[in-house]
Design a protein that fits this description.
about 30% helix, 60s Ribosomal Protein L30, Chain: A, alpha+beta, two-stranded antiparallel sheet, globular, about 150 residues, 5-stranded mixed sheet
């Protein structure tokens, strides 16, 4: 297990957990040295663990934790595909979708849950561009969904 994976395990995220796509798509695509993940949702043990809109049904803090879990699920998919998340040279971009109540404008704070996890795991290589978008609904009623783009080491 790599150092980055050990960090995630120490944070409470088992790396040998596998999520299956909920529809007809691949969890990620590799083009050259760029990895594009499909949208990752807050699934743990095959169950969605954060459902509902923010902040009326899911608190800001819980949505941040859900965003971090989405990132972990993306990293798990990368690990399964390339063998180790240590093959990630840098995080390029995150897009965070937040199931938002009308008038909720703190999507950027929810997205910080995803961004902070990247920085905790990858250090300076975890800095990334990011969008945080409020939406009316997400698949399976999830509170958060995160897409990621990574650069693979050459």
């Amino acid at each position: 297990m790599s150092e980055r994976e050990k960090k995630l395990e120490a944070m409470g995220y088992a790396m040998d957990v596998e999520s299956k796509p909920a529809a007809t798509y691949k969890p990620l695509i590799i083009d050259g040295n760029t990895i594009y993940t499909s949208g990752q949702i807050p699934v743990d043990g095959g169950q969605v663990v954060s459902k509902g809109s923010v902040p009326s049904q899911v608190s800001l803090e819980d949505a941040q934790k859900a965003a971090a879990l989405c990132v972990v699920n993306g990293l798990r998919a990368v690990r399964k595909s390339v063998g180790s998340i240590d093959k990630i040279a840098r995080v390029i971009r995150l897009t965070v979708f937040v199931n938002s109540d009308a008038g909720f404008t703190d999507q950027h704070l929810v997205a910080n849950g995803a961004s902070q996890l990247m920085l905790d795991v990858f250090g300076d290589s975890g800095w990334h561009a990011r969008s945080a978008v409020g939406v009316a609904e997400l698949p399976l009623g999830c509170s958060v969904e995160v897409e990621m783009i990574f650069k693979l080491a050459e």
